[in-house]
Amino acid sequence: MSLKVENCLLYAVTDTSWLRGRTLAQQVEEALRGGATMVQLREKELQGEALEQEAREILALCRQYGVPLLINDDVMLAKKIGADGVHVGQDDMSAAKARELLGEDAVIGVTARTVEQALAAQEAGADYLGSGAVFGTSTKKDAKPMDPAYFQQICESVSIPVVAIGGVTLDNIRELEGRKMCGFAIVSGIFAAEDIESRTRDLWKAAQELCLPGQVSRLKMEILRRHPVVQCITNIVTVNDCANALLAVGASPTMAHHPEEMEEFAAVCDALVCNMGATESLEAMMAAGKADTAGPSRPVVIDPVGCATSAFRRRKCLELIDAVHPACIRGNGAEIRALATDHRTARGVDDLFLQEKTEGPADKNGQSRAEISEDQPSSDFSLSEETVRCARQLSRMTGAIVIASGETDFVVSGDRVYSVHGGSAWMTRVTGTGCMLSVLLGAFLSVENSALSAAACCGMMNVCAERAQEHTAAEHGGTGTFRVHLIDELSGSIRQ
Questions:
Q1: How far is it, in rounded angstroms, from Cα 187 to Cα 191?
Q2: Average pLDDT over residues 452-467
Q3: Could you tell me the CA-to-CA distances from 451 to 18, 327, 441, 445 in Å, in that order?
């Protein structure tokens, strides 16, 4: 399986030192129930048939939970049992040789303690790096903790994900805030806990909040490296801003709308965005979807503009969803509820959204409000629990990532909900900011089709909107000034 950046978020590394009457497989399942996103079998005391039997049992669990299993060091065991990949150290088999033996689809992780090692591993084809020890660790008593600033330098030197390893626990994990890692590899912090499931869940929440900067940074680097082409079948009101938003982040837009040219554009585009505001182009959207099913897969984003008000748009949008099997559906809360329940839920196209982006760009202490967490909706959120319930329902029905935009943006994939806070009230005063977000999602999902990638895109948009509002206020400007600053901030943010 190919590695997704969200697999790196909470990486459980096994150790039988804390079994306390349980089997290793039982401990691993507890971690998987708590939200572990990848597992590494690292058992130095087990060998031969005993190790293989343990590996096969844990592999079956990982398959059940849809999580990759990597084997520490032992490339031949990974190949024999069909594990998803391996993690190798500097003194083990090279990443290039491991890739040769396991194939292009295998996940190859490499330990890197210096910038030079990180760059060499990336060049050799590693999918991710484990770097540290970031804290003192019982598994490697001779490992000197790495300077946090140097760890961040390693994270920023490569475009592949970097996970922090060594001594990470719930007590110290927040000391790494702002260090640009994409996740945490944790041993005793998970498996030494009395309640592994609960501890893993708490660690997952912390990791989710802390890793957004690293996720955004990596994804932005990939967009700049790949320059994805995004086909936008969007409405005439926002076509110019959508094109400029994509250009600002290093992607390339194409606005082809005629049904007869869809097959040709499908061959050269990396993502497709269908905006229901372009009702005159419904035939083209269907044609583009059919071209996708006949050729290489590319993520499709559907923006259900107006579906909360118009029964016609709602019906056509549901038909489009059935035809193209989108990777992502992004709308305001009213639109998401309307699609999930198939009935009218708003008085106007932007009714709910306009009520929700009501706060300014920062909290009372002047700090940015943009962050990501696993917060569940409460009475403090304008976006109702009913909207999140409908988003979950729509995600299960379609298999798509569903995003309900508002004061808090909820990114839903199955039963998991990412809450992305922040943004600006001015986003509701300029036509097309939601449409811009939808095309940016096309760019982000083209480099990695995952819910965390979608959440990272929402987070970037919110930060840029906050900064645009600050610049606008400093200049005593209006909505036109805000619009210009928003595109400027997108251009600057992607290169930071």
A1: 6
A2: 93
A3: 33, 9, 10, 9
End-to-end CA distance of the chain: 31
Q: How far apart are CA 289 and CA 262, in angstroms?
A: 9
Q: How far apart are CA 71 and CA 77, in angstroms?
A: 8
Residue with tokens 């945490």: 184
- List the structure tokens of 244: 């400029």
- Sequence spans of domains, the chain: 5-210, 227-344+383-492
CA distances from 77 to 19, 54, 70 (A): 23, 11, 10
Structure tokens at 256: 């082809």
Which tokens go with 168?
């990470």
* Overall CATH class of domain 227-344+383-492: alpha beta
> Using CA of residue 224, residue 229, residue 233, residue 238, what is the dihedral sign?
positive
What does the alpha-carbon distance between residue 327 and residue 121 come to, in Å, rounded to a whole number? Answer: 31
Helix (H) / strand (E) element for 411: namely strand 409-413
Please give the Cα distance from 403 to 391 (Å, whole number): 7
On the question of pLDDT at 480 being above 80, the answer is yes
CA distance 285 to 184: 41
> Which parts of 22-66 are beta strand (E)?
38-41
Cβ 161 vs Cβ 183: under 8 Å: yes
pLDDT digits (tens, 9 = 90+) for 116-145: 999 999 999 999 999 999 998 766 666 789
Instruction: Please determine, looking at this structure, whether the domain spanning 5-210 carries the CATH number 3.20.20.70.
Output: yes
